[in-house]
């Protein structure tokens, strides 16, 4: 066994439950995230994705279960957990009155780095913000603001980064910019927990994917492992390879109609799978 195989996971959850006013949002969530990987938590709005992030980042206390981040218990060692992670929410948390460089310097000084200017410049270079570093953030495009937001979250080199629906509301070009930034994080060895409702985003970025539905993890695995949940392809004229979208709706398909969704959504997906699978 290698040292990496023996290393504890960067994030571990066991039987996490959380309710709001009698409504159970998380129902025994269990998962492991390997160090240095991108793990996508995929689910529809209201599935419980943000609640998972809030529990792991010590912003919420779970009703039951245990969780660790970077080896520290979120309930008994919240200070150590917060030192080990960075959280980027659904909206860019940049100060638009400051330049990109000033935003980075502000966070570097708040974190008491010995050389804040050097840290800021390194992130400017890493995220390709050199041409805009000394412009006010209010002049940035949506993708540039997101890149700056992610850069700010990396001040101090946290080993774990939570990206909670980082491309919500962005146009396609801006989404691709953010995707490049996430891939760079993974290449540099940062552990990334990505929550998203976009199937193509999980397919593009994640080493492993978990589908969260109604507060439960229904399936978890690599993209290829999830594709194997579908029946094998039968080649007639064109071979159609199963997508993550096929897997997602095949897994939650029965609940799709129960929730009052449009009647065409679930059956159409089901027919599509059947028509191209034996």
How much β-strand is present in the residues? 15-25%
CATH superfamily (homologous) name of the largest domain: P-loop containing nucleotide triphosphate hydrolases
Sheet having the most strands: 6 strands, mixed
Structural class: alpha/beta
Task: Write the H/E string, N to C.
Answer: HEEEHEEHEHHHEHEHEEHHH
In terms of quaternary structure, what is this? single chain
Mean pLDDT: 84
Q: Briefly, what is this?
A:
The protein has 278 residues and is an alpha/beta fold. The chain is 39% helix and 22% strand. It is globular and about 55 Å long.
Give an overview of the whole structure.
It is built from 11 helices and 10 strands. The longest helix has 16 residues, at 172-187. It has 2 domains: 7-221, Rossmann fold; 222-278, no CATH class. The strands form 2 sheets. Strands 6-7-8-3-9-10 form a 6-stranded mixed beta sheet, sandwiched between helices. It has a 4-stranded antiparallel beta sheet with strand order 2-1-4-5, with helices on one face. The model is unreliable at 257-278 (pLDDT under 50). The protein is globular and about 55 Å long. Helices cover 39% and strands 22% of the residues. The protein has helices spanning 3-6, 49-56, 78-84, 100-110, 116-126, 142-153, 172-187, 199-205, 223-227, 244-258, 265-276; strands spanning 11-20, 23-33, 38-42, 64-69, 72-73, 85-88, 160-164, 191-196, 208-213, 216-221. It is of the alpha/beta class and 278 residues long. Helix 4 (100-110) crosses helix 5.
